[in-house]
Amino acid sequence: MTTVPASAADIDLPRLLGVADGILGSVVGEFVHGLGSPGSVRKKGDDFATDVDLSLERRIGAELVDRTGIGVHGEEYGGPAADSGPVWILDPIDGTFNYSVGLPVAAMLLALAVDGEPVLGITRLPLLNQHYTGIVGQSFTVNGEQTPRLEPGPLSSAVIGCGAFNVRSGGRYPGTGRAALYSALSHRARRLRMTGSTGTDMAYVAAGIFGGAVSFSYHAWDNAAGTALVRAAGGVATDVHGQPWRVGSGSLVTGDPQLHAELLEVIADSGVAGDDTIESKVDQ
Q1: Whether the model pTM is above 0.85
Q2: By its UniProt entry, which Gene3D superfamilies does this protein fall under (predicted)?
């Protein structure tokens, strides 16, 4: 069973979850109203942010600091180191490309990490009226209702969430390797799904909608909230090598304990991790 780190023992996590969830709830109107906003800030490769991303991060971040006294590390503006002390980790719009073209699969992601370990997570999909919260070792809720812990199930009967990729891309996990993995999974899993939102994939694992999910992102803002939710629901969250996920991990694999083990076997057989000797990056 995953528990919170000892350094979080004196933190009132239920209170912080309530405060943070209320802050996210207060900006739902702005999120919904901005659907279809075009990219306004170019980032690495073909990635971009919208004016709504920037506005939401400023608004949420300021209120979190004011009401909790804890710093915020966000996708757009950075902040304190994401792996030291208590820190909020925020992605104001996960699935920005979806959001910019009017596809409603886009989420607000917020986690509290203590010394690099996610201890609570919130994922809101305002355009779908879906809302997931969790405290590791304590509770997991869907739309405000407490849910049962994840039941073990085989990969052969599961839907698996897969991250977006370009087969021509390079990097730590090249597109050809990801394609090989997804090809292998297509023969082992019941169905594969590519939502375009890592946070959505992981929330759906926690809720038992997806049996498991794989993310090749190393960004804490993509993975921290989902890791907390999956663990809160009784699932497992590691990197592609089976090491427990923490801030700085270079990938994320989630599922119930049985399915997660099967996923790791397929990942190893596919060779996608290869000679993965590049040091994991911590979002700074």
Answers
A1: yes
A2: 3.40.190.80, Fructose-1,6-Bisphosphatase, subunit A, domain 1 (3.30.540.10)
